[in-house]
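Hi,

Apologies if this is the wrong queue. I'm a grad student, and the batch job for Phosphatidylglycerol lysyltransferase from Paenibacillus taihuensis produced an output file that my downstream script rejects. I'm not sure whether the problem is my script or the file. Here is the sequence I used:
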Amino acid sequence: MRISKIGIRVGGIAMGAYFVWLSWQYFHGKASIGSSMVKLLHSPEMLLLMIGGYSLSFIVKALAWRLYSGRDKEDRLALYIHPLLVSLLVNHVLPLKVGDLARTGLLARSAAIRWDDALHWVAVMRVLDMASLLFIGSVGALLLGLEASPWFIVVVALGVLVLVALYLFERRRRSNQQYQTDRKGIVAFVQRHYIRLQSTLASKRGAAAALLTLVSWLLEGAVVYGVTGVLDLPVNPFEAIWVTSMTIAGQLFHVTPGGIGTYETTLTASLGVLGVSGEVAFAAALLSHGFKFVFAYVTGAASLAMSAVTWKELRSWLQPTGREGHIK
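Support response: The file is valid. Your script probably expects a header line. Output copied below for reference.
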């Protein structure tokens, strides 16, 4: 675990350093990002497309989450939308990607469920997110003739690592027969949730949740498509979706608020693979990330207010000592 954390930090620092170099090379104040912002503000149709597509992506994610939980008949959709937006806000405020803990805590409180059940649902949705990104990245790289793209290789490598980890976990679980009947401690906890994951994903409900998750990421491509459209870049909707998947996959190395640096680096590199010049690609990265920051702050703050979340309560969700009280 410690090695993986060190690897993520080293990768994040490396991307941050490259972001500094990109800023030095391509950032020219008002002549670049300023003019790009003016173009976006003077293109209300593209701005509406970005807001609508990005907002709809979270609604579809919430639908997938509620469907997987099996509580789609009893819970209001808002119970799942607000945790998503609060999680987005936390990830754009704190340097560590701990928004999922706030997401878990808010759902556990709002839906009156056990903390570990809420955490299970959040973890599974993250798995579906990564599977969707891997699928989009792989299909996009093949269709666009980018098999040799370094980002495609990174995504495939990550996918292989996940599959290997799952295989080793399953092999170890089967080899330790004496623990399979144990209903106490962490073994029983892991086994219970693993069985639930296996049975749900193999059902129609699990398949529908996976499909909705994929659709949500297709919709998120509206942000990149809108920005590239404003800047008159030759990027079609499918390419915008592929660039988005590569950029989000790069957020694995999130070590700054909102992934500043890693987001711009991966988006600039992905657009560069499509033939966009570095200066224009960097401006598009800054503009799209700036849009997401504004969206996160506005919608996240609104969700905190509408859910009546106090600062003390939010802090308790982000600290290990504050989670036991949420298990009912």
